[in-house]
Amino acid sequence: MNTSDSIIIIPTYNEKENIEKIIQAVFGLEKFFHILVIDDGSPDGTASIVHRMIDGGLADRLFIIERSGKLGLGTAYITGFKWALEHGYDYIFEMDADFSHDPNDLPRLYAACHFEGYDLAIGSRYVSGVNVVNWPMTRVLMSYFASMYVRVITGFHIKDTTAGFKCYKRRVLETIELDKVRFKGYGFQIEMKFTAWKIGFRIKEVPVIFVNRREGVSKMSGGIFSEAFFGVMRLRWDGWFRKYPPMPTH
User: Fold this and answer.
1) How confident is the model at residue 155 (pLDDT cuts 50, 70, 90)?
2) Is the dihedral angle over the CA atoms 70, 209, 106, 21 positive or is it negative?
3) Which of 37, 229, 208, 237 is nearest to 126 (CA)?
4) pLDDT at 138
5) According to the model, what pLDDT value does residue 77 have?
6) Non-local CB neighbours of 215 within 8 Å, separated by 6+ positions
7) Closest residue by Cα to residue 150 from 71, 53, 225, 244
8) Distances from the Cα of 90 to the Cαs of 84, 144, 169, 201, 209, in angstroms?
9) Rounded-to-integer distance, Cα 88 and Cα 67, Å
10) What's the pLDDT at 62?
11) How far is CA 201 from the centre of its chain?
12) pLDDT at 214
């Protein structure tokens, strides 16, 4: 079996236009990655494409977990995190299937954790200006000011708090109490970063360019944003009163 210290978790729902291309792009990199797809019962056959690739000779580095129905982005990642920890990976990535996250940036996130010693590397759209391509201006402003809102309410000094392109060292996910993570939508992204920060992990924002999907349909909704908006207030409350796990010594 071809081993790797790194696995990329890709949640999918109706991504038949993108999934094979994104897997091929990742496997074309010089750095050797594994991929775990978490598919929420896509009716368009996304999972079948992944199974065909696995059966076609990628069984040693491509894996899939199929779930019945849309259970939420956060629960997909929690499922993937637990699987990755059980299988001994040292670096666990979050990445979208639609090429909004450039696979060529994966080695830069890896380098921030592996070589520079950070615990969490965030592919940040806003750490060096506003690096977003092909998004409607209303969406850019909503995302940018959402991150600003999080910083003002929580005191959390990360420019891109809602980013979903990340690399965790395994000790971060071992320390965060994954079963206590509350949010399922994009509030999940904020909660995970905020919790890592409160525990004391070292975080680096790596500048990336975010490109709006070219194929497939966006999964964004008003409910996702409202969860994130009101959830931030709860995080601020937690920051005052919740007892977070201690920083690991190893």
Assistant:
1) confident
2) positive
3) 208
4) 75
5) 97
6) 17, 18, 98
7) 225
8) 9, 31, 6, 15, 26
9) 22
10) 98
11) 17
12) 59
Question: Where on the phi/psi map is residue 41: left (φ > 0), alpha (ψ -120 to 50), or beta?
Answer: left
User: CA-to-CA distance for 5 and 32, rounded, in angstroms?
Assistant: 9
Helix (H, G, I), strand (E, B) or coil at 207: strand
Contact 91, 146 (CB under 8 A): no
- Is residue 92 within 8 Å of 81, Cβ to Cβ? yes
pLDDT tens readout for residues 44-102: 999 999 999 999 999 999 999 999 988 889 999 999 999 999 999 999 999 999 999 99
The residue type at 82: K
**Burial bucket for residue 28 (CB in 10 Å: 0-12, 13-18, 19+):** exposed
Residue 201, token pair as written in the block? 């992990």
Residue written as token pair 């709860």: 234
Q: Which residues of 114-150 are buried (b: 16+ CB within 10 A; e: fewer)?
A: beeebbbbbbbbbbeeebbeebeeeebeebbebbeeb
| CA 38 to mean position of chain CA atoms | 12
Residue with token string 């019945």: 68
Mean pLDDT, rounded, for 177-194: 88
Extract the tokens encoding 68: 């019945």
Q: What is the dihedral of CA 158, 121, 187, 103, to 10 degrees?
A: 120
Mean pLDDT, the chain, integer:
88
Angle at 142 between CA 191 and CA 218, to 5 degrees: 80
